[in-house]
Amino acid sequence: MEKYSRVRDQVSVLPNLQLIEAPPASDNQILYAHDHSYLQRVVAGKLSEQEQKEIGFPWSEKMVERSRRSAGATIAACKTAITEGLSGNLAGGTHHAYRNLGTGFCVFNDSAIAARTLQKEVHPNLKVAIIDLDVHQGNGTASILQDDSSIFTLSIHGENNFPFKKESSDLDYGLLDGCNDQTYLQTLHQSLDALDARFQADFVIYLAGADPHEEDRLGRLKISKEGMRKRDEAVFQYALDKQIPLAFAMAGGYGKTIESTVEIHCQTIVTALHFQQQY
Ligand SMILES: [Zn+2]
How many whole angstroms from 254 Cα to the centroid of ligand 1? Predict the structure, then answer.
């Protein structure tokens, strides 16, 4: 949890960056991606012991508030990106949350909620691509959006990593343990080409997980800091070339030292600022 405040402190001094307090997502917005009964159980503190175990932390009012604001921040980033080109959430990327179930530290699925909120509140025909480069598969996102042809889900992840039961995204690339920069970036470029051939996105939501980095405890891949920067650049360039807005979320990062994770997340934000000025 500490990485979030450290990232915030570090980026708060960057020129041309404006920090805004995350607004909470409303019930209505959460219900675009979640079951009514699940939302009620979360809000009322009626999650079973088993459900709390699946999420990975115990229920509290603060946990509900944090989850609401984490999703609300991705919605706010999306709406800001529409006017400014690029914007981000300093948390979020809770892609393991299913329609009626929280798992893997994820309560509400911010990218599914935000993509649907854009369609409900900005434009009904908006087509959204979710590019999920956290090292863990975006299983909840894939499941929630499996029958939704207006939102494209792309996930590049460690094949042998959590979640061990994968869902079907519109496009999945499972990488082997120890994957290096070259293979990783090649896979990314291929997948962006494939996305382009299959889907005309009007908007991109990018999950910029820091956990593919070589110093991550859980990632199992060997992507250098430079490789991580090139990864971010490839995604930002993709959106910039098409002149479509992009909102990003931080997603996972569990470095051997907290500094290494904070460094990778901050690098994403510095890179994003550079691209934002080109919109
Ligand atoms: Zn992850």
Answer: 8
